[in-house]
Amino acid sequence: MSNPFDLAGRRALVTxxxxxxxxxxxxxxxxxxxxxxxxxxxxxxxxxxxxEATGGTASTILVDxxxxxxxxxxxxxxNIDILINNAGIIRRNASVDFTEADWDAVMDVNxxxxxxxxxxxxxxxxxRKGTGAVVNIASLLSxxxxxxxxxxxxxxxxxxxxTKILANEWATKGINVxxxxxxxxxxxxxxxxxxxxxRNKAILDRIPAGRWGAASDIAGAAVFLSAPAAGYVHGAVLxxxxxxxxx
Length: 247
Ligand code: NAP
Known about the structure:
CATH architecture: 3-Layer(aba) Sandwich
Shape: globular
Helix content: 25-40%
Bound molecules: NADP nicotinamide-adenine-dinucleotide phosphate
CATH superfamily: NAD(P)-binding Rossmann-like Domain
Oligomer: single chain
Structural class: alpha/beta
């Protein structure tokens, strides 16, 4: 029997692959055999180098989701089988002071760009009568409220909702749509939290695993949801959070 986690022969595109969780997922997909296109608003040379150093195949393309329609042409003639919607931003401020600019910036990158990039991917897969897998990067704030991050929480609740509706519409058409919800992971996104000793302690005290997650902790779940092993998994949001939500 062939290995159901093997991605040999598949082509994957990872957004925001130059750093953090996106970089770790790109490396994980390549280790599982996929050819990886690393998309970022900056070139993903470091990630490509990491993949090539272990014998994998990768390339980099520029895309800036500050224009939420920027992903529209990404899949033309590319035969991409796997889309990892990882690019995301966060803006922190009290809800009472939160600005329209901080609302729009986060919603555009985290939600609107994710939807229209996924739509473009699905159109390409359906046009060639192929199969595909979409893995969205959700958050604990797809389930919880958080504090001081209203547009982020709204966007990540939206990501969980889109994961379900797109799974409903495409499950019979050969496209699996699922999400990973990372817990508290040591990346640029959480730098401000780790720099605040009180918040850092409060967070650590609640994580059953007793440590912050590493970006590499997310890669295995993304590989699974991209692989034939997850062929009957549709609309799932898989928590990878050191047990946070179980507490
Ligand atoms: P990160 O290191 O800040 O990575 C975010 C990635 O998104 C970077 O590659 C960033 O590029 C890219 N990006 C931001 N704006 C973009 C734009 N306009 N166009 C294209 N790419 C853009 O943080 P991370 O933690 O790895 O975040 C990755 C995903 O995980 C995000 O969706 C985040 O919400 C989610 N997440 C993170 C955590 C956590 O604890 N860290 C928890 C739950 C969910 P630049 O490097 O150029 O900024």
